[in-house]
Amino acid sequence: VSFGFDLASPALAAQFERREPIIRDALITILSSKTVQQLTDPKEKEIVRYQIKKRLCQLMESDGITGVYYTDFVMQ
Question: What does the radius of gyration of the chain's CA atoms come to, in whole angstroms?
Answer without folding.
Answer: 12
